[in-house]
Amino acid sequence: MKPAAFDYMAAETLDDAISALARAGGDGKVLAGGQSLVPMLNFRLVRPSILIDINRIRDLGYVDATGDVIRIGALTRHHSLETSPVIKAHLPVMTAAMQHVAHLAVRNRGTIGGSLSHADPAAELPMMAVLLDGKIGIRSLHGRRMVDARRFFTGSLTTDLKHDEIVTDVEFPRLLPNTGWAFEEIARRAGDFALAAVGVTISVRDGKADRVRIGMMGVGETPLRAPEAEDLLAGNAIDAQALEAAASTIEMAVEPNTDLHASADYRRFLVGALARRAISVAWTRACGASP
Amino acid sequence: MIARKTIKLTVNGAVYERTVEPRLLLSDFLRVDLGLTGTHVGCEHGVCGACTIIVNGDSTRSCLMLAVQADGTVIETVESLGSIHNLSAAQKAFHEHHALQCGFCTPGMLMTVTDLLRKYPLATDEQIRAGLSGNLCRCTGYEHIVAAVRALVRQREGAP
Lengths: 291, 160
Prior knowledge:
The complex is a heterodimer. By secondary structure, chain A is of the alpha+beta class. Chain A has helices at residues 14-24, 37-42, 78-83, 85-90, 92-98, 104-107, 112-118, 124-131, 149-152, 227-233, 240-253, 264-286, and strands spanning 7-10, 28-31, 50-53, 63-66, 69-73, 135-140, 143-148, 153-155, 158-159, 166-173, 179-186, 196-205, 208-217, 224-225. In chain A, the strands form four sheets. Chain A has a five-stranded antiparallel β-sheet. In chain A, strands 11-12-13-14 form a four-stranded antiparallel β-sheet. In chain A, a hairpin with a 2-residue loop joins strand 6 (135-140) and strand 7. In chain A, helix 10 runs antiparallel to helix 11 (240-253). Chain A is globular and about 60 Å long. By secondary structure, chain B is of the alpha+beta class. Chain B folds into two domains: 5-80, Roll (Ubiquitin-like (UB roll)); 89-156, DNA polymerase, domain 1. In chain B, 32% of the residues lie in helices and 16% in strands. Chain B has a five-stranded mixed β-sheet with strand order 2-1-5-3-4, with helices on both faces. In chain B, helix 2 (89-96) crosses helix 5 (143-156). The longest helix of chain B has 14 residues, at 106-119. The chains are: A alpha+beta, B alpha+beta. The A-B interface holds A 1-8, 10, 31, 34-35, 38-39, 41-43, 51, 53, 55, 79, 102-106, 108-109, 189-191 and B 2-3, 5, 21-23, 25, 28, 44-46, 49, 52, 58-61, 63-66, 68-69, 71, 112, 115-116, 119-120, 129-131, 133-135.
């Protein structure tokens, strides 16, 4: 199992990488952490003519909190996110999600830009981007553009990214005060891709849920939000009845696939169970109690 | 014709300079070009963990990195740990707790455990198991490996 031959360039700057990618004319691949791309090379599922290695570009890995925005550089490794005090302080639901990402040796190499570009429907960071209203920063020779995460993921392993574009950073609005959060995942083995997972943030005002966000993965071709359930919960105190209504709304809305790992019915059951758990924990946290 | 690249790197304290094809995996470079066959190659797509080494202080699957990417890095492989007459603490713990049978997964296990002990508290068996979950062993059933790591955690905390 060896990759087909390719040329290789280690870009020193983002401009070098973008130029090389444009020159490759759709036949180049950007190499970041390589934790998804190199297996695909080894299986010869992809045969690029050139790999553009961005690992040596300085200043592409960072976590910055400025004003109400948390910006994360594309080359930030999963282990850095998992252990970042800035993420823990401002986006604690992401810290929780990172506990489920693969294994240490993979987290040491894998990057957020790579995970978003690869767009596995059962990966945690694409789901975090959709849950937390992330905006994905993209560069090419034509300049910079920002895309809402909900529009970035267009299918399984498919994104809005053009062949000459590179993800450079992701911006997240910081969680509002009085926001509770939760992340719940089921995988067959610690660190494996999820069978299903649900992330929730709920901000509370005057004893009622004000803004509710529910993100799901493993139950569609892309990470998803649950807008009907979010609307149903917003504006009310969340009691057992509301919780049940939201969970069954989610179960009815999703259309999961059957695959080797789980049937569609089991995934539907899982996402409902995880949603009940996550909404309940997030609400408890939002109300100021420890779950 | 694709240009070969010259790389210079430090492996277990020795500096090597070699010219390689870009597609050469780091795992094959270590085993074939440098003759360091302690690093084992199992699945070659990042699932089994047998080829885990340490690159610039971080455990890494050597089958998911290209040799050209290792230019300028400092690498530790299982050969850096100890010798048959002078086992390292991790090797001794694996030996004493029967944490291996056939030994195929052991180099990857040892390098993973080395990084885990540097980065995580591993206060509970659950945390130890989660840490080891990226390394497959088909012989031991993992119990003895967990016991070996538990002993290493105690040693790290300075217990007698």
